[in-house]
Amino acid sequence: MLAPKLPVTLDVPGKVANYPRATELERAALDHGVTVRRGQGYTLRVSAVPAAHQQLLARCQPLDGAQDVPVIPAQRKARREYENRVNALTRSAGP
């Protein structure tokens, strides 16, 4: 049996964290995040298994202008910043 992946801590931009979420795993992780104030917005420091970060990133895909949703540059930038953090996590984990 494979051991469950350990939680990792990533900073989730507030515009991504506020995007509607449906799964219990994502909701639990975001509800336990620590708010960090920076500049005009905020960041939520979230500790969750990598799969939860990947699910949240996938759920926030419309912020990038998909599915006939108007593009808001700040939301697009926030999603891409989070995407870079998640991708760096998966690259560093390796096979």
The helix-strand sequence is EHHEEHH
Number of strands: 3
Q: What best-fitting shape do the alpha-carbon axes yield?
A: globular
Number of domains: 1
Residue-averaged pLDDT: 81
Strand content: 15-25%
Which residue ranges are poorly predicted, with pLDDT under 50 across at least 5 consecutive positions?
none
Return Rg in Å. 13 Å
The SS-based structural class is alpha+beta
Give the termini separation.
17 Å
Describe the sheet with the most strands: 3 strands, antiparallel
Helix percent reads 40-55%
Question: Helical stretch count?
Answer: 4
Strand order in the sheet with the most strands: 1-3-2
Describe this structure in words.
The chain contains 4 helices and 3 strands, in the order E-H-H-E-E-H-H. With 95 residues, the protein is an alpha+beta fold. It has one domain. It has a 3-stranded antiparallel sheet. The longest helix has 21 residues, at 73-93.
List the main descriptive attributes of the protein structure presented here.
globular; 3-stranded antiparallel sheet; 3 strands; 45% helix; single chain
Question: Which helices and strands occur, and which strands form pairs?
Answer:
Elements: E1 8-13, H1 14-17, H2 24-31, E2 34-38, E3 41-48, H3 50-59, H4 73-93
Antiparallel strand pairs: 1-3, 2-3
Helix pairs in contact: 3-4
